[in-house]
Automatic annotation (TrEMBL):
Keywords: Lipid biosynthesis, Lipid metabolism, Membrane, Oxidoreductase, Transmembrane, Transmembrane helix. One of its GO terms (biological process) is very long-chain fatty acid biosynthetic process. PANTHER family: 3-OXO-5-ALPHA-STEROID 4-DEHYDROGENASE, VERY-LONG-CHAIN ENOYL-COA REDUCTASE. It holds the Pfam family Steroid_dh. PROSITE patterns: S5A_REDUCTASE (PS50244). This is 3-oxo-5-alpha-steroid 4-dehydrogenase-domain-containing protein.
């Protein structure tokens, strides 16, 4: 094909082959990963090209940037081959995140509204294990502030998902919705709500208003910083672009992912306010994942930008993580 490429097409998983997969395809010299997916899907009779994963034949790694030029992929150019895998039914990343963050927003208001009916039966059921303090309609300052902060945090997440974030990958397998959402719905949603608004919770018995105000201050500082970073990162890519750009400036000289740093600060504020063991568990697990994602980005920056990038020892908390 003049000015183009002819590529051999091979099943990534021979035990689960794609029926009607073409043995080869001809593509333009400037064809992208997305173009190849569309071409293979059309030849194989697959209606949604997003189901297909394109892999480098040398590294066996998937090509995540759907706008990357195939001709620029060293392994593919060298071997003249691509590996293809059917990833199954897909759903957009944006949809998955919207569903994830919806959990806490759905759990906290009804638990708070029905607390006078939820907790009284527990006293007789767990007699001797929880303090028999009466349920009243009045919430403590820490509980009120905790509710406001949790709702604001996840409403902000939803807003950013719909209007701010840009995703380098367009879809993920539908099955991921369950596993991705379970953590938010169970830990930050059901467990967090049930514990924070209980009349015997640490938040209910918090008597130091200065500690609560400190928590609110940390929360606001973290949320503003996190939102500012997300807006900046979103602006690095022009509409339609998926290529990774090198972020600079505001706190990026401290850590690889300052958005994670501010996320932790915001959650530290929520925890200082609510004194909640459930939410400590939630953000502890979340910090582990943010740390692993952060190191992934650090390695990617080092590989892609070389000497132009100043290596970081910490990816999310200066001098710690």
């Amino acid at each position: 094909m003049a000015g183009g490429l002819s590529l051999k097409v091979t099943n990534r998983v021979p035990k689960k082959p794609i029926k009607k997969l073409p043995s080869s395809i001809d593509i333009a010299g400037d064809a992208t990963v997305d173009d190849v997916k569309i071409s293979v899907a059309k030849a194989a009779g697959i209606s949604d090209h997003n189901r297909l994963g394109i892999y480098d034949p040398a590294t066996k790694k998937t090509l995540k940037d759907r706008k990357a030029r195939i001709a620029d992929q060293e392994g593919i150019s060298k071997h003249g081959e691509i590996l293809v895998k059917d990833m199954g039914p897909q759903v957009s990343w944006r949809t998955v995140f919207v569903i994830e963050y919806l959990g806490p927003l759905l759990f906290h208001p009804p638990v708070l509204a029905l607390r006078n009916y939820i907790y009284p039966p527990l006293y007789s059921l767990f007699k001797g294990h929880i303090p028999a303090s009466p349920v009243t309609e009045e919430l403590s300052l820490a509980q009120k502030a905790g509710f406001a902060m949790i709702m604001l945090h996840f409403l902000k997440r939803e807003y950013e998902t719909v209007f701010v974030h840009k995703f380098s990958a367009s879809t993920m397998p539908v099955a991921n919705i369950f596993w991705n959402s379970l953590f938010y719905w169970a830990a930050a949603g059901a467990l967090g709500a049930f514990e924070v608004y209980a009349p015997f919770s640490p938040a209910a018995n918090a008597t130091e208003p200065l500690t609560t105000y400190l928590g609110i201050t940390l929360f606001l500082f973290g949320q503003i910083g996190n939102f500012r970073i997300h807006k900046y990162l979103s602006g690095l890519r022009k509409p339609g672009e998926t290529e990774r750009k090198l972020p600079q400036g505001f706190t990026f000289q401290l850590v690889t992912c300052p958005n994670y740093m501010f996320e932790v600060i915001a959650w530290a504020g929520i925890i200082v306010t609510t004194r909640s063991p459930s939410l400590i568990f939630f953000i502890s697990i979340g910090m582990y994942y943010m740390w692993t994602w952060g190191w992934g980005k650090e390695k990617a920056y080092r590989k892609q930008f070389g000497d132009k990038y100043k290596k970081k020892r910490s990816v999310m908390l200066p001098g710690l993580l």
